């Protein structure tokens, strides 16, 4: 029988009550007494020189309090980058300044030039139209290949537009080259991982507050990690010490990575609140979000996979151009390197791997992590190449994968990481069965009778989650640790407040974390509250991204609960007049082994706070513990996905008929929430593969600047998903044995879909189509192949 | 949005009077106009709200035509028994515009007056040979009403009051959605009358909604899928954008026209 509480139970998401009844508290819901509003005047040019800004008329406009330009930010730093990549020559990456407001030049459409603070939002916007900017248009750098071929530079510091040129592992280069030269067969694939806009439902917002009485700054912001924002903004931009700066991220309506980063608008409202001595609020509208939220993906790659005659993988080589956009966003440099290069083994025992990644500045919005971050790009290039290899070698795609699967764990890959556990054959078996692979040919024939082309596609994925061992990432260039912190406070009557450094913005932590604590203590879930998102309340934590919250944040909670139990046992032993070693704790009861003497959880908690009868000489009163957990390794969720599609050859339209997922997330705390996370990930991954794509024209104008042109998947575009996580191999190095499930769906689904479509089109001899597989692109590929197919 | 005054006239006559104000603009369902205002792409001084005018609402069957008031919402057209029995293709078209929120505010009059090159209704009006009645007492044939992208024969301040749709023997609308906006990337409305067939194309033409004369001629002599199979719409005046090249749109026109004819039975 399914459990009805604690670990393994599908407890209903307690946070949904407030979200579904409109009582969630988002940043934009808050209004502070005396609040003013800021509107940013943003560049409509991709590249330009600012010859002058005339703010006189705007400053005189009704309701305007002050118009800010970069002059007002001369004393502050630029928006910092949190990761430094060292290039193949041992040089640090190029790191041009990212000013809060543009200094002399604009570098992408949406770059903020000036900021108007006024009594109302409308007045601020009206006044912004009165600002006269003498902007001289300069040639824009947009296309990645053109950017590195000489010519215009986005930043004078990087004349060739290269942020870095990175080899990994540098020592494998020659061996890989040689293996590719001598191989029986080499499959070659050039592909693009399309640029995406995260589009969380809630656009970004920020409110700055300043209390002159005690020199306290508060920033309310839509962030996935308030402590990271406090650190970056306080230390690097505004020079505010931590004890004078509070950052609160209340309810946040989705992030998908785009709300990890420290953004200029946050620094602006924080500083402006002090300058004006009143709260300043900013709320992005959707159009602004398209041109100011960090974008995702945007890689151009070439992959070569060398095989022997039986299809054993001998070597993999990839070369990638990765778009950084106009400035380095917080984690941008590490996405195409350490979160991408280290995953290039995939699920396979390819002995030799080498990649070269060149990160490129362009006159576009900064690009950073988006659900999966680097790992989807790695998975896509591997799984597309493996599929193409299967076709070229005449080996069934599932069989080719099996032949190359890693089966022994732990497994040290040739790309630095060590997988702790997994069973790739098991997930493959599950997915082949769940998707009725055996019945596919009959279904294909049925489709053909209706003039439709049916295709079946597989993909495997592996990800490195539970980010990350601090010592390891430190060696790789991270400028912060990546542990997590938790305080567990047991209140005198036995209720529990958990203060976590993780941040929930859709993941359901309030439910899942309570389940873990309830399970460990044998107390009801509703006696536990999960507190997050406020640097004045929770211990220094690194926040939520990289599917790390349960694996790292949850582990910190487990450590604190362990300490609580150990201390409570001491108190119980004293009260029960027994030896500590004779005390057992089960289902919320402390008992003396072999006797009927016991105490309830609440009695011990009360004794801790009312220490009348208490071992005061050896034990402090109170029951509150803080722990920091720094993982020993990444976690490695993996899985197998199968997608079945039908293509209308007359229109190129792809219909996703079924999608089957078999994931190994290690132990699962709340199956319903995990399923929901997979569903969301699949929707985003299929969105990327089918329809999403951020497009700039050659002048750097954003063509897909609204939902009229940027296609988001709707429910009607997706089938009902079949999700399974029974093929589970627990993580070996964290206390819960969990691996993380937030990104998997978005990582594994794009190649599964593309493989399925190309399978459907196999009679046309179409080797590849770049995502998104829009009807027009699929039709164009068919149309171009038609004469060839007809001639055969 | 910029500031504007808002008027809610009690009668059509009052509305016509209000439209004489400088920079006055009608608002019906607001599904096009409100987003335009929010993006500050329009700055009317007065908005004249037509959505409360009972005389602009409703469907009635008058002999061989359906008369639909300009302020009739898409959802009401889609759900109307009169429309469903007389011109099921028109009810289906209305029921597939946007999402429920859009259909419960957006109106027929707003759609034809706006004449978005990717909108659905204009193709129905053109293919069915509808007559657009206006507050100036004019009855304008659809062929003379739609003048080009976002352009119509309406004069300054003139309101659409009603559209009369002749009832065909058969009709079908094939909409191929633009992946992002879900408007028509290409939409083809085929209508069969005792005297011949009419075919209107939306979403594809640089000149806005257009008739396809060659297909009409072919279908008028032989109303069958075979008559239009292999026919190609000239690609030279077709829209090309990130969602489809002119060649792709030309292909869709051919495919959708054939399918529409097939669906007419
Ligand atoms: C998300 C979304 C999806 C949509 N999808 C589709 C789709 O798939 N297919 C489609 O065809 N449309 C679609 N639309 C547009 C929708 O049908 C609009 O409702 C319609 O185009 C305009 O009608 P309205 O009543 O909302 O007009 P309004 O927005 O009120 O007005 C539009 C214009 O017409 C003028 N106007 C309004 N009424 C009159 C009148 N009686 N006389 C003269 N001028 C008038 C206004 O002044 C304004 O210029 C969509 C809209 C949205 C927001």
UniProtKB/TrEMBL annotation, chain A:
<dbReference type="GO" id="GO:0005506">
    <property type="term" value="F:iron ion binding"/>
</dbReference>
<dbReference type="InterPro" id="IPR000674">
    <property type="entry name" value="Ald_Oxase/Xan_DH_a/b"/>
</dbReference>
<feature type="domain" description="Aldehyde oxidase/xanthine dehydrogenase a/b hammerhead">
    <location>
        <begin position="21"/>
        <end position="139"/>
    </location>
</feature>
<dbReference type="InterPro" id="IPR016208">
    <property type="entry name" value="Ald_Oxase/xanthine_DH-like"/>
</dbReference>
<protein>
    <submittedName>
        <fullName>Xanthine dehydrogenase, molybdenum binding subunit apoprotein</fullName>
    </submittedName>
</protein>
<keyword id="KW-0500">Molybdenum</keyword>
<dbReference type="Pfam" id="PF20256">
    <property type="entry name" value="MoCoBD_2"/>
</dbReference>
<dbReference type="Pfam" id="PF01315">
    <property type="entry name" value="Ald_Xan_dh_C"/>
</dbReference>
<dbReference type="GO" id="GO:0016491">
    <property type="term" value="F:oxidoreductase activity"/>
</dbReference>
<dbReference type="InterPro" id="IPR037165">
    <property type="entry name" value="AldOxase/xan_DH_Mopterin-bd_sf"/>
</dbReference>
<keyword id="KW-0560">Oxidoreductase</keyword>
<dbReference type="InterPro" id="IPR046867">
    <property type="entry name" value="AldOxase/xan_DH_MoCoBD2"/>
</dbReference>
<dbReference type="InterPro" id="IPR008274">
    <property type="entry name" value="AldOxase/xan_DH_MoCoBD1"/>
</dbReference>
<dbReference type="Pfam" id="PF02738">
    <property type="entry name" value="MoCoBD_1"/>
</dbReference>
<dbReference type="InterPro" id="IPR036856">
    <property type="entry name" value="Ald_Oxase/Xan_DH_a/b_sf"/>
</dbReference>
From TrEMBL, chain B:
<dbReference type="InterPro" id="IPR016166">
    <property type="entry name" value="FAD-bd_PCMH"/>
</dbReference>
<feature type="domain" description="FAD-binding PCMH-type">
    <location>
        <begin position="1"/>
        <end position="170"/>
    </location>
</feature>
<dbReference type="InterPro" id="IPR051312">
    <property type="entry name" value="Diverse_Substr_Oxidored"/>
</dbReference>
<dbReference type="InterPro" id="IPR016167">
    <property type="entry name" value="FAD-bd_PCMH_sub1"/>
</dbReference>
<dbReference type="InterPro" id="IPR036318">
    <property type="entry name" value="FAD-bd_PCMH-like_sf"/>
</dbReference>
<keyword id="KW-0274">FAD</keyword>
<dbReference type="InterPro" id="IPR016169">
    <property type="entry name" value="FAD-bd_PCMH_sub2"/>
</dbReference>
<protein>
    <submittedName>
        <fullName>Carbon-monoxide dehydrogenase medium subunit</fullName>
    </submittedName>
</protein>
<dbReference type="GO" id="GO:0016491">
    <property type="term" value="F:oxidoreductase activity"/>
</dbReference>
<keyword id="KW-0560">Oxidoreductase</keyword>
<dbReference type="InterPro" id="IPR036683">
    <property type="entry name" value="CO_DH_flav_C_dom_sf"/>
</dbReference>
<dbReference type="InterPro" id="IPR002346">
    <property type="entry name" value="Mopterin_DH_FAD-bd"/>
</dbReference>
<keyword id="KW-0285">Flavoprotein</keyword>
<dbReference type="GO" id="GO:0071949">
    <property type="term" value="F:FAD binding"/>
</dbReference>
<dbReference type="Pfam" id="PF00941">
    <property type="entry name" value="FAD_binding_5"/>
</dbReference>
<dbReference type="InterPro" id="IPR005107">
    <property type="entry name" value="CO_DH_flav_C"/>
</dbReference>
